[in-house]
Structures are given as C-alpha cells and as structure tokens.
Amino acid sequence: MAAPVQTVTEDLRRWIVAQAESGCRPEDVIAAMRASGWAADVAAAALEQTLERHLAQRGAARPAIVKPAAPGPAADAATTQRLSDGCEVRILARLQLPRVVVFGGLLAEAECRQLVELARPRLSRSETVDNSTGGSEVNAARTSDGMFFTRGEHPLIATLEQRIAELLRWPVDHGEGLQILRYRPGAEYRPHYDYFDPKHPGTMRVLERGGQRVGTLVLYLDTPESGGATTFPDAGFEVAAQRGNAVFFGYDRPDPSSRTLHGGAPVVAGEKWVATKWLRERVFT
Ligand code: PD2
Ligand code: ZN
After folding, report:
1. Is there an atom of ligand 1 within 6 Å of 189 CB?
2. How confident is the model at residue 16 (pLDDT cuts 50, 70, 90)?
3. Nearest ligand 1 atom to alpha carbon 228
4. Residue 116 phi, psi dihedral angles, 5° rounding
5. 39, 52, 148, 161: which has the fewest Cβ within 10 Å?
6. In this structure, are residues 160 and 251 in contact, taking their beta carbons and an 8 Å threshold?
7. What's domain 80-280's superfamily in CATH?
8. pTM of the model
9. What share of the chain is helix, strand, coil (3-state, %, to 5)?
10. DSSP 8-state code for residue 20
C-alpha cells in the first residue's frame, strides 16, 4: 500500500524556522520530525525548502549593501528616496567640493524626541580625541554636552543605523556609535576636520579600530530659535539646523584639500541637538 502523502503546513514551517533560529542542529530537527511520524526524505526536503525560503525573504526585506568606493548616495540618486523601513528622504542640496549632501525628512519628529530623551540623562561636557595621545580631553573649541550610544544598543538606534547604512550605502559595522550633542545658547563647535590627522602621533592607535573616518552625517534632532548652523567656511556654505534633516559630507583623503573644514556656529537662542554618525574605512570595533 502506498504511504500517505505528508503535507508541509505553514505551522510546520514556522516551527522549523523557530528551531533553526534557536540554534537547533538540522539533524536534530529531522530526528524530531521523524519521531512524530514524518518520513525521513520528506522531513529533510521540508527543512531545506523552508530555510531557503526564509533566508530569501529576510534578504529581500533588508537590501544587501554593495559598498561603493566612498560612502554617500549615488550621483544619480532620485530626489526622493523611499528606504526599506518606509522612511521617505529628500535630497535638498548637493555640493561637489566639499562633497556635501543635505537631506530632508531623514528622521520623524517622534524619533528625534525619543533620541533626545534617551540621551539626556547621560550627557556630560563634550570631549574630543587628542591627536597626540589618542585619548580624550575636554576642549574649549567645543562647548556642547554629549554622549555616545553603542551600536545597536536600543531598537531605535538599530533602526536608524540600518536607515543610514542604506541611504549612504555604507555597512552598519563600518560606523562608530551615534554621538549626541546638546548646544545651549553660546555653545559652539569651532571649525575642524573630522578625519584623524595623519601627522599626529596618536592617530596610529585610533586607526587600529577601523581605519580612517571617510564620512560624517550630522542629524538635527531639535531646531534652535536662532543660530547653530553647520558651516563649511572653505565653501562659504552653511546648513540650517532643522529637526529631522541631516547633512552628510565625505572625505576620500585625510587632507584639507577635501575642503571639509566645518563647524557648528554658536547657538544664539534656544537649544540645538544633533546626532553625529562617523563612518570608517573598515569594520569599526
Ligand atoms: O553640530 C554641528 O553642527 C557640528 C558641526 C561640526 C557637529 C560636528 N562638527 C561633529 O559632530 O563633528
Ligand atoms: Zn565635525
């Protein structure tokens, strides 16, 4: 007599995926299916098909990032881009030298507020990397308060990191943890370069964790009443700090010829909050 046909139901597929995701070995999944009456060949085929389908669906939901030579949107990127998490980002302005792109609508208002509230209790007077030692110190050129999130430390942080990676076509693991800064009236960040100066002795140690910085994204989390623009003095260009918007600039060499000298102009009234994402050449550890 022919063996009855065994149908692989959606419930069974869900169970197979759950077993695999909890670390169960394939042979143990098949053994469990055989113990509940499944023929060995049907169990093996169901396992293979289910996991292949699951991996393909997961891959489709999160587009693989093909890393270009430098971070940033493609030169021919559409003015409005819908990212895979549904965020609709607009390109508001572009410069060629320095390589700058201004984005509108990269963060929703609720996301900005939540980031500020997550950061607020952890703020302290900002430090900058001391190029001669590789350590950090309080710096008069930067009068904001700040803190760092570690990569992926909160679901919102993970969502934003994924969004930034897709927009700038640069893998999440090449990014430093998000830095949050608060500027009160009078606070500023005097013009500087974000790359590590190759001439300074401390730079070698800093580069061990992922190589040079190759790009910066400053995201505006709150709009000051007056002042606080991000300035590019060599280009005579400035970007108004507007909640939800962001400015990206890329530097393919750690040299002033990148024209990426930039600063945060003093806040005149109200508070300015930003998140900064620095991108490295390689995996940042
Ligand atoms: O807050 C800014 O506008 C700003 C300006 C310059 C931030 C940074 N640099 C930075 O975080 O590197
Ligand atoms: Zn900077």
Report:
1. yes
2. confident
3. 3
4. -60, -45
5. 52
6. no
7. q2cbj1_9rhob like domain (2.60.120.620)
8. 0.78
9. 30, 25, 45
10. H
Contact 197, 251 (CB under 8 A): no
Mean pLDDT of all residues in 178-201: 97
- Whether residue 126 contacts residue 138, with contact meaning beta carbons closer than 8 Å, is answered with yes
Tell me the one-letter amino acid at 41: D
Structure tokens belonging to residue 212: 């040079």
CB 162, CB 172: distance < 8 Å: yes
Q: What separation in Å is there between the alpha carbon of 130 and the centre of ligand 1?
A: 17
Q: If DSSP codes are grouped into helix, strand and coil, which group holds residue 278?
A: strand
Distance between CA atoms of 195 and 232, rounded to whole angstroms? 15
Q: How far is the CA of 46 from the centre of ligand 2 (A)?
A: 53
**How far, in Å, is the centroid of ligand 2 from the Cα of 194?**
5
Residue-wise pLDDT tens digits, 199-244: 999 999 999 999 999 999 999 999 999 999 999 999 999 999 999 9
CA of 66 to the centre of ligand 2 (A): 26
Sketch the domain layout of the chain as residue ranges. Answer: 10-66, 80-280
- DSSP H helical ranges for 108-236: 109-119, 155-168, 203-207
From 110-124, 129-143, 204-218, 265-279, the region with the lowest mean pLDDT: 129-143
